[in-house]
Design goal:
Helix content is about 10%, strand content about 50%. The chain has one domain. The protein has an eight-stranded antiparallel β-barrel. The chain has one helix and 17 strands. The chain is elongated, with a radius of gyration of 19 Å. By secondary structure, the protein is mainly β.
Length: about 220
């Protein structure tokens, strides 16, 4: 069974490289979370056995100390000094690896001196997919599905709802990091809401530890 999995992954890897060279950063490839940056004899980042983080693994990340999550667009730039992301993986290995988001919160958010309420009203799911182009890595892309975040400018009475999508990178390591960078389109809100906002935030993954993205 082990040899069949390796053969299947090798075939998928070869197909991905042949089909997508030069066209992007990730393709439809089996993805796993790993306790070590393991590779097989062919140099493919394959994780197996005791190195695999199992289904149900808790992913917990906190906004890096001293940094701020930035939400740019609309009435102004909103900055949040606090943010937490937590999700639990649904599988051990999958295309892509899915995780149910349980926490995605924000604290101390302001637009200048004005307090702004930013909160998640639908947590949705988070997909992780290994970055295999132009070269194989131990990192992954992050994509939110059905996640909705509301931004409320209380003084202006402006209430906007945005949907994160392709929104960042998980960089593996002994202390993994998440670079949350993406354009969040508006899904609801009044005339003063922008069609989208640019969101940037840098997180440290505290669990699991250590963490790499493999096949």
């Amino acid at each position: 069974m082990k040899h069949l999995k390796i053969l299947g992954l090798a075939v998928l890897a070869a197909a991905a490289l042949m089909s997508f060279i030069g066209t992007g950063t990730a393709s439809a490839t089996f993805t796993s979370l790993c306790k070590a940056p393991t590779t097989n004899e062919a140099g493919l980042p394959i994780c197996e056995g005791e190195h695999l983080w199992p289904a149900g693994t808790r992913i917990h990340a906190e906004l890096q100390v001293g940094s701020r999550l930035s939400i740019a667009g609309g009435p102004g730039v909103v900055e949040c000094p606090q943010s937490t992301l937590e999700a639990f993986t649904e599988q051990e290995t999958e295309i892509p690896l899915g995780a149910n988001v349980t926490v995605f919160n924000f604290g101390g958010c302001k637009n200048g001196a004005e307090e702004v309420e930013v909160k998640t009203i639908n947590p949705g799911t988070l997909d992780i997919e290994i970055i295999d182009l132009p070269n194989w890595t131990h990192n992954g892309t992050l994509t939110f599905t059905r996640t909705e975040v509301t931004v409320l400018f209380k003084k202006l009475g402006v209430h906007c709802i945005f949907a994160p999508g392709d929104t960042g990178t998980l960089t593996g390591g002994p202390m993994a990091t998440i670079d949350l960078q993406g354009n969040w389109p508006r899904v609801a809100g009044g005339m003063l809401c922008p069609p989208s906002v640019n969101v940037t935030g840098f997180y440290t993954v505290t669990s699991p530890e250590p963490l790499w993205v493999d096949m």
